[in-house]
What does this fold into?
Amino acid sequence: MLRTTSRRTGILVIAAALALTATACAKKDTSGTTASGVTTIQQGKLTTCTHLPYAPFQSRDASGKVVGFDVDLLDLVAKKLGVQQTIVDTPFEGIKSGQDLKNGKCDIAAAGMTITPERQQVIDFSDPYFDATQALLVKKGAPYKSLADLRGKRIGAQAATTGLEYAKKNAAANGYEIVEYKDLATEQQALATGQIVGAVNDLPVWTEYLKENPGKFEVAAQFDTGEQYGLGLKKGGNPELLKAVNEALAEAKADGSYDKIYARWIGTAPAK
It folds into this structure.
């Protein structure tokens, strides 16, 4: 009887020790609240999801640091909150679907992302911060000046983007074949190596690419789709952060900070 009691006591002690170990090993809550009352998923940081590369909005410089239009803009938001921005590179599909935000991978998404009714169902968008236009890039001297000139040809577009949607919408009428690429870099490479004769994406992206590759490519056509970029947040998840983001955008436009960022990355200050 005594041996049985001792055995039970030993089992209880071991169980208690295991419970304590499990508690100690449990993931700690690292979230924090800024001085302005905004909650972020990581203490002292504003975590931004993006998809690289997408210059001039976000890309790595020679040192490997992520830089760009969106990065500078979110640095202003982080400064307003009294925190530092940290950036997570993740597939665009997880950003536009709202899953990365919903799952707590980041506080905010900045990826040159167009505001659309479909995306608004799963993402809370900031006020628009950039007017975007789609464009067709071809090799310098190519005979293609419009989508109609591409009949029977192969053109590229980036997966999960509004550029791809635009290309698909006009494919039947113009008779071209669309090849989807997982990111901007592979789309650019496909055009450079002749796998496709044209590529559709946002005009500022092609403008940046032309600077990096002078004399090799040209914008054959532009398509005014009325698109505007927005910063994305978890749907219904952080109204205080959304308010702070919109305030930071408004302040940047009022004090000239936005114009300086725009001129730095796009080339000229935006039209008033």
Summary: The chain is about 40% helix and 25% strand. The first helix runs from residue 2 to 25. The two ends are 90 Å apart (CA to CA).
